[in-house]
Amino acid sequence: MAAAAAAVGGTQQPQPELPAQGLALDKAATAAHLKAALSRPDNRAGAEELQALLERVLSAERPLAGAAGGEGAAGGGGGGPGAAEEEALEWCKCLLAGGGGYEEFCAAVRAYDPAALCGLVWTANFVAYRCRTCGISPCMSLCAECFHQGDHTGHDFNMFRSQAGGACDCGDSNVMRESGFCKRHQIKSSSNVPCVPKDLLMMSEFVLPRFIFCLIQYLREGYNEPAADIPSEKDLNKVLQLLEPQISFLEDLTKMGGAMRSVLTQVLTNQQNYKDLTSGLGENACAKKSHEKYLIALKSSGLTYPEDKLVYGMQEPSAGFAGATGTLGQADSSDEEDQDGSQGLGKRKRVKLSSGTKDQSIMDVLKHKSFLEELLFWTIKYEFPQKMVTFLLNMLPDQEYKVAFTKTFVQHYAFIMKTLKKSHESDTMSNRIVHISVQLFSNEELARQVTEECQLLDIMVTVLLYMMESCLIKSELQDEENSLHVVVNCGEALLKNNTYWPLVSDFINILSHQSVAKRFLEDHGLLVTWMNFVSFFQGMNLNKRELNEHVEFESQTYYAAFAAELEACAQPMWGLLSHCKVRETQEYTRNVVRYCLEALQDWFDAINFVDEPAPNQVTFHLPLHRYYAMFLSKAVKCQELDLDSVLPDQEMLMKLMIHPLQIQASLAEIHSNMWVRNGLQIKGQAMTYVQSHFCNSMIDPDIYLLQVCASRLDPDYFISSVFERFKVVDLLTMASQHQNTVLDAEHERSMLEGALTFLVILLSLRLHLGMSDDEILRAEMVAQLCMNDRTHSSLLDLIPENPNPKSGIIPGSYSFESVLSAVADFKAPVFEPGGSMQQGMYTPKAEVWDQEFDPVMVILRTVYRRDVQSAMDRYTAFLKQSGKFPGNPWPPYKKRTSLHPSYKGLMRLLHCKTLHIVLFTLLYKILMDHQNLSEHVLCMVLYLIELGLENSAEDESDEEISVDGPERCHDSWFPGSNLVSNMRHFINYVRVRVPETAPEVKRDPPASTSSDSLGSLQRSRPPKVLQRENSGTAQVFSLVAERRKKFQEIINRSTSEANQVVRPKTSNKWSAPGSPPQLTTAILEIKESILSLLIKLHHKLSGKQNSYYPPWLDDIEVLIQPEIPKYSHGDGITAVERILLKAALQSRMNKRIIEEICRKVTPPVPPKKITAAEKKTLDKEERRQKARERQQKLLAEFASRQKSFMETAMDVDSSENDIPMEITTAEPQVSEAIYDCVICGQSGPSSEDRPTGLVVLLQASSVLGQCRDNVEPKKLPVTEEEQIYPWDTCAAVHDVRLSLLQRYFKDSSCLLAVSIGWEGGVYVQTCGHTLHIDCHKSYMESLRNDQVLQGFSVDKGEFTCPLCRQFANSVLPCYPGSNVENNLWQRPNNKSIKDLIKEVEELQGRPGAFPVSISSETNLSKEMESVMKDIKNTTQKKYRDYSKTPGSPDNDFLFMYSVARTNLELELIHRGGNLCSGGASTAGKRSCLNQLFHVLALHMRLYTIDSEYNPWKKLTQLAEDVNSQLGSEEHQPEVPILYHDVTSLLLIQILMMPQPLHKEHFTCIVKVLFTLLYTQALAALSVKCSEEDRSAWKHMGALRKNTCDAEKTYEALLSFVISELSKGKLYHEEGTQECSMVSPIAWSPESMEKYLQDFCLPFLRITSLLQHHLFGEDLPSCQEEEEFSILASCLGLLPTFYQTEHPFISASCLDWPVPAFDIITQWCFEIKSFTERHAEQGKALLIQESRWKLPHLLQLPENYNTIFQYYHRKTCSVCTKVPKDPAVCLVCGTFVCLKGLCCKQQSYCECVLHSQNCGAGTGIFLLINASVIIIIRGHRFCLWGSVYLDAHGEEDRDLRRGKPLYICKERYKVLEQQWISHTFDHINKRWGPHYNGL
Question: Pairing relation of β-strands 987-995 and 1033-1034?
């Protein structure tokens, strides 16, 4: 290599070989020389020289490129390429710098950077910000740095994780407002940046073109067409890896700032350069080959190079097109076949669009004229490598480049689509495409320019069309055989994987610019093409109802279909609509509507649609209908267009309404379970159709279109169509029985409810009929809040906004917040410990329930039917609470906003005879109790009547009765069409068809009915004569026949044709003469009007006769002011009263008739109808009522039982106020303790052979070890400076102490001098329930066989308490005998202390003085052993082995008494660190210390301490010979007694005694130990004070030594201790370094007394607790300052006659067993001999820090962002990469990688390891990227929730919303409380195994 390079350089200095550094010099020199040559005015020679040099340098790598590519890959040299490339890069850098240093050159160029734009480019997963307040384009984004340096306080911003990558827009005023720019980019660009000196970048201009060309050649070389469709991704990636350094080099150049970017722009866009270098016409063979490869690549992509004479021997470009079309056709067809084969989806007919030359050229011709264009071509070919994308985007701040690049991008748009379709990594590729396009198209100015100059819109629409064309299939809608319509196939990858979204999102993006959208709306050709595109989606994903078998395979294509319609059709539609807001845009609407109707007409023709939809099929996708509807709505609402001018003729309207109506009927069918055989997915479709993201693009336009059709079509026709579509026509008969040929009886009721509900929605919904945007928003919000209380974010999500972000309501905009505060109250989150974590919720205000609750809106917006019920329940609760209505209310009737005048026709539906007949029939049927009717039906019927009265025609004069001519149908039913007058019209007889079995048949027809009429039931109407004769009889009413007739009148065709068209339908019973013979005609006597039916209904509902009394007879006011609040809420009775009142108001006649009916006292049901059957139903009702009452009573009883159980058993969930079950009875009884077994339910004592046990949970705990000695709380570090040092924790201090003792003293003795268990101590807790141990074993067996997935591991002995389901993992045997040794404390205590000490010593000496001899293996002792094993296995070995000799028995001994210590200390912490509160605390009731003590004592007795080592002797006897104590030199001495931990001694002494212990012995032990403790306190005090203090005290105390009470005064004792200790070297070396120990304060007697008390208090607290558990005595409560004296007297340390008036002196508690001064001398002597050698350590060991503060978690910062910004970029200490899931431990602040493989040790991931080391198996971690806390407990973990909430009191898990989060102190307290009280297992319910993978 060196030689080659030298040869290149050889043109200037002919030196044969150069050493390496020489080469570097040489490069620099060459560069300088060339730069000088080029600076001369005549620089041709220099230029040539440079060209030659570059040619050589950059070609040196050429052969290797081939090797890297496909051909010579096997033979290519191994390490070669890297070296050659580096060499070339070095040359380039040298040449650019022109002989200087490259770094200096970079700095120089940067100085000329006019940094106006940030332009930082980022890739996926980068954390960026978006501020809606500052953004002009919705896609605006900022990098974190620019965001934090700008001022966005109070703005609507959020943080987000970039999905596709992006770039920072700071400084770009096209995309964001300047007020939001950060400090760096506020400075205007050209103001103060100096001009770039010419010679600085001169070399770059020469070198870079060659460099880029070299890169392109490389890309050409490396690309091989994938053979036979097997992608050679490996090869492509290999090439890209080789090119990494080159592209990075270019990227670095772009980062040098504006000056370098403009040079690059020149190079990339200069066409001459490109032509010279790449034409391939030179003599250079390499260049030729490379050019050929480029042409092959073009051709294989189905593209042509129009001027390429080598390929086509023709001159004219048109020929090129022809050829292109040919090749494309072939390529595509082969493609298609392959796909068909693989998909196996039947034959697909490929539908070609008219291949106009324009389209063809868009799709197939590419001509590259510059480096930029070819670079982009290869970028696409290589499927958008990240580095290339970043380089291309980094250049964007250069304006000239931006324009050139955008045009190039548009030019390649079709090619991008083709590559994307073929790609196997389409997701990644999509993201990268959008990453680029969003930067280009968000800028309106740029988008407009490209639209004008490059036909951007044409290209996009054509490309989309082509894309969808590849997956079309024949539509099966309607006429399967002859259909010509094609739809997209939702099963294809293109739709399933959303491959089209980059193109659609670009399209939506450019349509958001007004100038672009206007061009689109003006261009008729484009609109036609677009409607053509939309029609591909019309009728896709057709569902056919399965009638027999359940469908085998549930297709999940529906999601693709809904997404496609929303993204590809609806969103562009919203984009266009947002520009049609003003009158001037009327023309656009007319265009869209016109082409939309044309497309619809084509569609109807293509599917051969006449008048009836095909049965049993439905498609939810009608985008053409919806386009039409939405543009109509806009036209009327915003553009003041006349509706009729854009509506088609009646026939078209009839066709238009069919499919949307079909969807509404199908929804009812789906909810009635008629589609159940189609699987769950059909329900999914029904839900998605109304779901919040889809509803305003789906169901809302459909309903609106139906409203428009209804307002323009004949109302009778419309109503009858509805009932026929819903298949309930046959139900609408007066007869009590009927046959329905199209519907099973069990579906009738819900279908009827569906039909009526639909009519109610149709008639009362005003979303597009006159509501303003704010009213709509308010109605939507009220509906959502009525269903459930909602969080702020879910409300934002549930309220449909126009999907286009530029439309009116942007979430978070002013109107949203103001409406929200008007309709809802905020409920702040509440925290009960153990309760579920609440979020901040919004709940409707009372007046909203009162006036705005709108059931219709709720029904329209519910995805789940249960939400409607939920809304009604909440409404009921509100009425009860506010005392407005006590019973079960009906949905309230809500006043509607007024209709827009264009839609007035809609109300004619309410005033048409057909509807009135239906209402009359249904009222009658309900009154007569016919089957299949429900309260819901009645409710809807009344709602419709009320709507009709509210919207009646104003011109009806009271007396006028409209009589239409006899040709009107149904005239025998009602005289006119006005509801107000029809309500009072009496109907006497009705002729019905009934089955022969019906009860109606038997009756004789009344005289006035002629019998002839029986035969006259053909389809034609009976002759007029007959009708006159029976003027009182209403004819059988055939909806269907009516509807048909209407349709044919409209479609004026010849009769013959019409008959062919209307095939006789089975649904029409009146049609065929051969209808089932068993039907016969009967005439019913009715004699009712709607009014009379209503009054009778009132009687029926109230259950009383004559219950209705017209209110206006008493109070005439009622008629004047009708809006009476008393009627607004209530049940059916209220509704009937309200309607009658309105009817009376509307006409005097009605009022009179109501009064008349009420005068005729009518029985509630016509008397002739009370048949046996009726009676039966009445009895049935009564029986039902009674049964219901019984049931209520039972339920109430059950509830109260349950409640009492919950109170006793379920106090698991609270760690504060709980009242658990008592383990034993509280009154002292001498009898044995009785236990209840919660499994077998038997009660009895615990015995040797059948022991009972307590359900316990054993867990290792390091909470105690986290106590610190300073009050200042530890903060979580959020900067590099802050660190947490663990050496001030309790655990660390105890560790140091133990290791210090072990250094100098005998090991076995050390292990008795301290307690362990500060870290990894075993904590035992119980729920208080007991069970037989044998029952427990069989329970465990059953759990083991139970295959249900439990949250715990039975093999590890885990289970849940059978009664309260609390988590547990062991059973602690209860010791037989009475629990409370009360019989032992009544004895008067008259023994002297000397005797007691003797007794204690004797008892300790007796081995196994246990009632149960150990040798006999009883069940009890076995259980005790097994539970001891459990206790040991609970914690890790390192936490129980502290001995120097592993496995020594001393270890076990130490471990056992430390378990007792741990449990006592933890209980103390649960009580708040002191015993002032007294009483038995919660922990006490649940405590199992008594049982635990028995188990521990039993095992401690197995280890006897040699009598001469027993500390008891040292405490109570004077040694005969002082010197024998010392031990010889070679042996390590025992630990001096003054260095012993007194609490540990206490536990050892007590556990060594035979159980049960006598109270007097306990007191004796405490008294003796207190003397030692006091001496220790004095010694520590003496070390703490200064030399002068010491001598002063020494003399002062010496005087009192001989007084009578010297042994009980601290002065005398202290002076003695000082004089004894000063014999050693303890106080010497009071040198300089020790001054820190000396406290600056002068010691007063008070402060000394306080010090001594504080020193002794921890011991007194633990001892009192122990006494409380062993002897059941209550703890007194007290003030903090008197805690010492109260506890002392409670423990019997204070003489009973002690007076507490004068200040309390702690020394008065002393009761010396032997003369004080003698024993102190003996104790001090041990220390003296030690300090002679180790004074330093001796002093340290004397000062024991005993005042630990309560443990706390780390203090967290107020704002989550502080944590996030520091930790989410922090690198892992092991692999120095930024972890994917960083976490931080909240106990000690350690930074860990969750699931990180880098930190894995022996299959344990870091979080699990840390939880074992830091918390002995309990870890509390904050996941940085998710803001949630995760708890690890042993082998399980759970997500706890978040302690950071946003301004609306909500969590933001995974930071999806990215709103600012603030600490919630209450939640953090709850977390800390659960940690300290060890209740994670009980309170959190969702645990799962982590398999060490966290």
Answer: parallel
